[in-house]
Design goal:
Bound molecules: flavin-adenine dinucleotide
Structural class: alpha/beta
Number of helices: 4
Order of helices and strands: EHEHEEEEEEEHH
CATH class: Alpha Beta
Distance between the termini: 47 Å
CATH topology: FAD/NAD(P)-binding domain
Shape: globular
Strand content: 15-25%
Number of strands: 9
Helix content: 10-25%
Radius of gyration: 17 Å
CATH architecture: 3-Layer(bba) Sandwich
Length: about 240
């Protein structure tokens, strides 16, 4: 079920068969408040980005310096639907990434170092996200930071330390979500997708599916009137 650990394939972060999108210009220069920032660089994050970008939200994906996530360690994924003979994990996630970029998601290949998710106000207010000294701001955030696997696949540590004290977590450090959706508990307008919030399934296809759900929850949030609708007019 689980592909073979293949640390030696780490080099495939520079895909050879799929063009790597050029990094976007530093978005903080424009001091823009984004509609949506997605934190993470695995199947959950890129699927959320595909859906959000297609819905014209122009998301910024802060994908981490180790973009690609756990699939970069999977030599062959045999169980992702659509690939009769299986597919290399790095190739699969690189294709998701390229698809997100094709629809207009901006990719920033750096690690988020600090967040402030609870500024208050309608819709939960503006969320502040730092990459070192640089500040990025958004009205909504999807967290898809996954896990760092241990020596055995079941020994996984959720990448959630950044959110401690701001979002509710279970005893393992997995982000808690409202049953039936991806909304986190503790900060309005913040959603979680993939393994960082999943203690049960932890598969590429379920991570991708929950990324889709998170993007659709964001759209429902917008349609629900939590946000100032004028921000859509500003985008032209
Ligand atoms: C060896 C191995 C083999 C596997 N084989 C299979 C398989 O065959 N089939 C299958 O369905 N599943 C498989 N899985 C499981 C599958 O890879 C995961 O369930 C899936 O990748 C989870 O996706 P995700 O997007 O939630 O998180 P991840 O893939 O963990 O990605 C999270 C990303 O977020 C980034 N990130 C973390 N912190 C930050 C930060 N502060 N700022 C910015 N970015 C950050 C990380 O660097 C990473 O790129 C395998 C896993 C492993 C370890």
């Amino acid at each position: 079920m689980i592909g073979v650990l293949a640390q030696s394939r780490r080099w495939e972060r520079e895909p050879t068969t799929i063009a790597r999108p050029e990094p976007s210009p530093d978005p903080s220069q424009a001091e823009e408040i984004r509609q949506l920032i997605i934190i993470g660089g695995g199947p959950a994050a890129y699927t959320a980005a595909i859906y959000a970008a297609r819905a014209d939200l122009h998301p910024l994906v802060i994908e981490g310096s180790l973009w690609g996530g756990q699939l970069m360690q999977s030599a062959t994924v045999e169980n992702y639907p659509g690939f009769v003979d299986g597919i290399d994990g790095p190739e699969l996630v690189a294709a998701m990434r390229a698809q997100a970029a094709r629809f207009g998601a901006d990719l920033l290949t750096e690690d988020v170092t600090q967040v402030e998710l609870q500024s208050g106000g309608p819709g939960g207010g503006i969320k502040r996200i730092w990459v070192g000294e640089r500040l990025y701001q958004a009205r909504m955030v999807i967290i898809a930071t996954g896990t760092t696997p241990g020596s055995a696949p079941e020994e996984r540590s959720p990448n959630s330390q950044l959110f401690a004290g701001q979002l509710q977590m279970d005893w393992q450090g997995r982000l808690t979500t409202v049953p039936g959706c991806t909304m986190t508990i503790g900060a309005q307008g913040v959603y979680a997708a993939g393994d960082v919030a999943d203690s049960t399934y932890q598969q590429a296809v379920t991570a991708a599916a929950s990324g889709c759900m998170a993007a659709m929850d964001v759209l429902r949030h917008i349609e629900g009137g939590f946000l100032d609708r004028d921000i859509f007019a500003e985008r032209g």
